[in-house]
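Question:
When you can, review this sequence-structure pair and walk me through the tokens.
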Amino acid sequence: MFGYPGIYHQGLLALCFLKATQGLQEFPSKGKEVLPEIKTSENGVNMGHFTSWCPSSSMEVENQKPPLCHEPIPMTREGNIAHKTLLEIETLKITEVSKESKKGLSLIQEMDDELWSLKDKIERIERNLYGNQRQQNIGKHTFNWDFEGLKSIYKLLSNQLKVQRIELGQEKSIVLRIPEEHLSEDPFSMYSKTEDFENDLTKLNLDLVMILSNILHKICPFKIDESVNHHIETSKMGPFYLEKLAFSMVGYMHKYHLISLEEYRLFFQTKDTLEIAVLNIFFGPVITHGNKHWTLYPSDYIFSIIQYTLGFEPYRNIYKALDAKGRTKMTFFFLQLSGIHHHKLHPKIHMREIEDEFSELNDQIFKGSKFFNTLEKYTKIMESPEKHVQEYHELMEIKKVLQRVCKLFTRIGDGPRFEKINFHFRFLFLILDFVVRNYGKEVLDEYRVGSEFQVRFDLMYSSLDMMAKLNEVNELASSLKKERLTNPERVGLLLEEINRISNQYQTISDFLSQSHQNLDKYCLIDFISYRILEVKLNLRNL
């Protein structure tokens, strides 16, 4: 799996994280504003053990009393300890704290353990690669193995813990333990065979993914249901930035086959990891940049358009790598957050009746997990309703809620003052679109919602599909232009696709012109017309 190409791919990990660390500017606050520097203690001892990248800093050998205080001991590039004098470090000093603070201190101690594991794995991978490289006498083929991305995660997490310790009344120093045998490990005599090296490196990669998963669960500030009570200030974005770095790293490891697709999916199947990812997306690019373009596309295209318009590649790759069940859950989490925080995504409207109905429907659909869990069992319930009496009753209640969604969607679309409630209109459709694409149109009970709704729903369903197809064609055209590739065959295929979309658009336009009702609002007619011209122009310039 690894060998020479594997080492090369490992080396590429640096490029991802250099880019990830540069991505700090995507959030309003710079890292130094979120995580301030910690000063020295009153006795003058340097408390910067975590922020300086020194593998031997703040270490205590197990079962051994620490000697007198010294400055952190430097290590060579390969990881050898310059000399074996150990460090004196300050022991933990915890003041009288409340029960809540004690719980916080316990979490901090757990985080310290995860930080040590992360640091240990980074050092071991680095020593293994350099040791194997020298042993095989690779010569001119040197690999610039750069850990800047991992080091950034480590340093920022450490600083975040320091800030929390200060808030909880704890001293800023802490003991990290390292097994004594690690101090004398010779990185250049660890492996007798290349396969031993590859096996160990494979295990280290999986260990690293597990550690990042543990860290994600510890730094996540809240869950989706709890988020309604939290107002995210720009000065509190530190945890979200750290999460993004962790997701970027695991995504990069999957992209370059350092972990398998199954292992990548398993990472997100760990309890709440997918929920944390969606929280990170929502309170990162969506809320921070105020982007609502995703309401112009189908529910299964949300993460693609967020990546396309804002350049957040890790999120789109997460969605693509998941299986069908994972994609459905990820989309619902995003809609759930959007429903809970809808007041942050659109200006306040002065149409009390519609606003109240919209808010009530959001509560019934997105408060808790009953709506989603019941729909997930839809097929099973309908196959034998007599065996699932209680669940069948819950399903009937959900169908009534969906019928109310259909009525409000039609009422807004057919009514006046449309522009002021445009977000409500599109978001209600996305709820219905999500249900139909994942569980089938029969969930809506067509005979109950009526033919007028069906016409409006079908028009908008087709229109959003066209928007997604146009965006895909434009992305492919932009890629060809960026790579400066002259491929007449590929350009021809893209032009054929544009012509098919144009014909579909013309069919809808003809239907609208013959209709006695004003249904333009359901067709995004102006958006599609403009987009077709834009993409055609882009293709002609290739």
Summary: The chain has 21 helices and two strands. The mean pLDDT is 69. The radius of gyration is 28 Å.
